[in-house]
Design a protein that fits this description.
alpha+beta; D-Maltodextrin-Binding Protein, domain 2; 2 domains; 4-stranded mixed sheet; 3-stranded antiparallel sheet; binds calcium ion
Length: about 575
C-alpha cells in the first residue's frame, strides 16, 4: 500500500496549491456574523444589520479567515470503513489541502463509527466537546435531545445559517424539504445534511430488464402491472437464455425494493419512502396509513400469487447483493430492482434497460414509492463549545457550491482528478494506482482523496461532482426516465418529545405486526381471506393507529409551514 507515499505527496501538493488562491466567488451573499471582535458592520440585501468579526475574509468565498489569523477548530469525525484503517485522517488529500484553502487549522478527533455514540456521550459528560461533529449521522431525535441539553448550537439563532451558510441557505430556499427535514418543532436547526439534488440519488430503486431476453421473446419494457406480470411469467417459462433448460429465476429482489418499485401501480406510497407506510390520501385530504388500505390488500395478494407461481424467488426474503450479482452473471436473472448496477461489470450493465415511465395499475394509478427526500440531516453539527460558529458554518457551506463540491469529492484537477471529454470527472491514475493493481477497492482508493466514503457528509449530490454509482450510466438514465413521475417526497419529519414517543413505540409495534402479517400472507402460511384481513385491520387500529396519524398530521403541518409544497420533481431542477 502506497498510502504513506501519497500522504507525503499530498502535503507537498497542498503547499503548492495554497499559493494558487481561489478567487472564484460562487455566491453573491456576503459573509457576516455576530461573534468575536467586531470591526465593521455590513448591511445585507434584506437590510438587516449584522456584525462581521474582523478575522473573516469577506472579499471572496475562500479563504474563510484572513491571512495570518490563527484559528483552530476541533472536528470530531465518525470513521467508517476505509478511514478507520488509516494511520491518520491526514492521509486523506482533502484534509491538508482544505486547511490551506481556508486558513483554518483543524484538529481532528478520530473516532471509529462503532464506538462513536459512546465516545460523543462521554464528551458531553466530561465537558470536552469538539467544535464540530462530522459524519456522525445524528438522528433528528438525538439532535433534539442534545440540542435541548444545550450541547448543539441552534443554527437559526441570530440568522447564523442564513448569514454564514449562504449556499446551503439558497438550496434550502429552492428545496423547502431541506428545512422541513431539519427544523425542530420549536424552530431550531441543529445540523446540515446531505442535499440529494440529483435524480440518481432521489430515485432510490430502479427496475432493470434484460434487453436480450425482451427482444428474443418479442416483449417490450412493461408499462402496466399486467404487462409486468407477463414479463415475469415469460422470462421464467420461455427459456430466454436459450440453453434448453428451465433454469431462469423468478424475480429476485430485496423486500424493501419490491415495495419501492410496485406500490405505485397499486396507488400507494405517493410521498416517498422516508415515513414508511404513511402517505397522502388526496381524496380525503389527510395522511393515511396505507398498509390497511384495500390497495395494500390487493398488492399483498398479487405478491402472494407471484410467490406461489414461482415468479418471485422463494429466497427473496434472504436477499444478498452478491447472490443477485451471480444470478445475473450466470444469465438466469432477467428482471431486478436495485439502487444501481455496481454489482455488475460494465458489459453486463449494458445488457439491461429500464422503465420509460412508472408502471400503471388497473385504474391507471401510477407513481413511485422508492423516492428519497432531497432533505436529510445530521451530517454536520456545531457544538455550543465552538467560539467561531461563523467560521465553522462557512467551512461546510463551501461544499454546497459547484466548486466546493468538486473539491470535496475529487480534490484538485490534474492532481487527484482529470476531466473527461464529456465533462464528467475521474480520479487520476495516481489515486487509482492501488485500485488498478488490485490492492484496494475503488472506494478504498477514493477514500484517500475525499471524506465521502460511506456518506453522511455535509455535501450535495449534484452531477458531475458526485459520481456515486447512482449518478452514472444506466442507473442514472433509469432515474432520469422516472423522475418526472415521482411526487416530491416528504422528508423524515421532526417530532416533539411526546410525538417521538408515539413514533418509537406505537408506530414501531404496528409496523412490526404489519411486516409479520405481510410475510405470512405472501408465503401462504396464513390465508388472505376476509376474516384474516378484517382481524388485521382491527388489530392495527387497536394498537393506536389514530395516535400515529395525529402525529403525522402535526408534523406535516409544520413542514408546510417551513415551505414544503406538494408537487412533482422535474429533471430541469437538477441540471
Ligand atoms: Ca433456460
Amino acid at each position: 500500500m502506497n498510502t504513506r507515499k501519497l500522504a507525503i505527496l499530498w502535503s507537498v501538493l497542498a503547499l503548492l496549491i495554497a499559493g494558487c488562491g481561489n478567487e472564484n466567488d460562487l455566491t453573491e451573499n456576503t459573509p457576516n456574523g455576530s461573534h468575536g471582535n467586531i470591526s465593521e458592520e455590513i448591511v445585507s440585501e434584506s437590510n438587516v444589520t449584522y456584525d462581521v468579526p474582523d478575522y473573516l475574509n469577506t472579499d471572496s468565498i475562500l479563504p474563510i479567515v484572513k491571512d495570518g489569523t490563527d484559528i483552530t477548530l476541533k472536528v470530531m469525525i465518525s470513521q467508517g470503513p476505509y478511514y478507520s484503517n488509516m494511520n491518520s485522517i491526514r492521509e486523506v488529500y482533502f484534509v491538508d489541502a482544505y486547511d490551506s484553502k481556508t486558513n483554518v487549522k483543524i484538529e481532528w478527533i478520530e473516532v471509529p463509527a462503532e464506538s462513536f455514540g459512546d465516545r460523543f456521550a462521554l464528551a458531553t459528560v466530561s465537558g470536552d466537546l469538539p467544535d464540530i461533529v462530522i459524519k456522525a449521522g445524528f438522528s433528528n431525535s438525538a439532535q433534539q435531545r442534545y440540542g435541548n441539553q444545550g450541547f448543539f448550537l441552534d443554527l437559526m439563532k441570530n440568522n447564523l445559517l442564513e448569514n454564514h451558510a449562504p449556499n446551503y441557505w439558497k438550496l434550502a430556499q429552492k428545496h423547502p424539504e431541506i428545512l422541513a427535514a431539519s427544523r425542530m418543532p420549536s424552530g431550531e436547526v441543529y445540523s446540515l445534511g446531505m442535499v440529494r439534488n440529483s435524480s440518481g440519488s432521489l430515485v432510490a430503486s430502479k427496475l432493470f430488464f434484460n434487453k436480450d431476453w425482451l427482444s428474443k421473446l418479442n416483449l417490450t419494457v412493461p408499462s402496466t402491472a399486467d404487462e409486468f406480470t407477463n414479463v415475469l411469467y415469460e422470462f421464467r417459462h420461455s427459456d430466454p437464455n436459450g440453453n434448453g433448460l428451465n433454469d431462469e429465476a423468478g424475480l429476485y429482489i430485496k423486500p424493501d425494493h419490491l415495495e419501492m418499485v410496485t406500490f405505485g401501480m397499486f396507488g400507494m406510497g405517493n410521498r416517498g419512502r422516508n415515513n414508511g407506510y404513511i402517505d397522502w390520501d388526496g381524496q380525503n385530504e389527510k395522511v393515511r396509513y396505507f398498509a390497511i388500505s384495500d390497495e395494500y390488500r390487493q398488492w399483498v395478494s398479487w405478491v402472494a400469487k407471484l410467490y406461489k407461481d414461482g415468479l418471485l424467488e422463494r429466497e427473496y426474503f434472504d436477499f444478498t447483493e452478491s447472490k443477485l450479482g451471480s444470478l445475473v452473471m450466470n444469465d438466469v436473472c432477467g428482471v431486478f430492482a436495485y439502487t444501481n448496477l455496481s454489482m455488475l461489470d460494465e458489459q453486463k450493465q449494458n445488457q439491461f434497460t429500464y422503465l420509460n415511465n412508472t408502471m400503471s395499475g388497473k385504474l391507471g394509478e401510477n407513481g413511485w414509492f422508492g423516492v428519497n427526500s432531497i432533505g436529510s440531516t445530521g451530517s454536520y453539527v456545531i457544538t455550543s463549545a465552538c467560539e467561531y460558529p461563523e467560521v465553522a458554518l462557512r467551512w461546510a457551506d463551501y461544499f454546497y457550491t459547484d466548486e466546493g463540491s468538486q473539491f470535496f469529492y475529487y480534490g484538485t484537477e490534474d492532481v487527484t482528478f482529470v476531466r473527461n471529454a464529456d465533462g464528467t470527472l475521474r480520479f487520476s491514475d495516481m489515486v487509482l494506482a492501488d485500485f488498478n493493481a488490485g490492492l484496494n477497492s475503488y472506494d478504498g482508493s477514493a477514500a484517500y482523496v475525499s471524506l465521502y466514503a460511506y456518506g453522511n457528509t455535509p455535501t450535495m449530490t449534484k452531477i458531475p461532482f458526485n459520481s456515486a454509482d447512482d449518478n452514472r450510466g444506466i442507473s442514472l438514465e433509469a432515474a432520469n426516465a422516472l423522475i418526472a413521475d415521482c411526487a416530491i417526497a416528504w422528508p423524515s419529519f421532526t417530532y416533539t418529545v411526546s410525538e417521538q414517543r408515539v413514533i418509537d413505540d406505537t408506530k414501531r409495534d404496528i409496523d412490526s405486526y404489519v411486516s409479520s402479517m405481510r410475510d405470512s400472507w405472501i408465503m401462504g402460511t396464513t390465508d388472505l381471506d376476509d376474516v384474516s384481513w378484517q382481524n388485521y385491520v382491527n388489530r392495527v387500529a387497536s394498537m393506536g393507529l389514530l395516535d400515529v396519524l395525529e402525529v403525522y398530521e402535526a408534523a406535516l403541518q409544520r413542514s408546510r409551514e417551513n415551505g414544503f409544497k406538494d408537487g412533482y420533481y422535474s429533471l430541469d431542477d437538477f441540471n
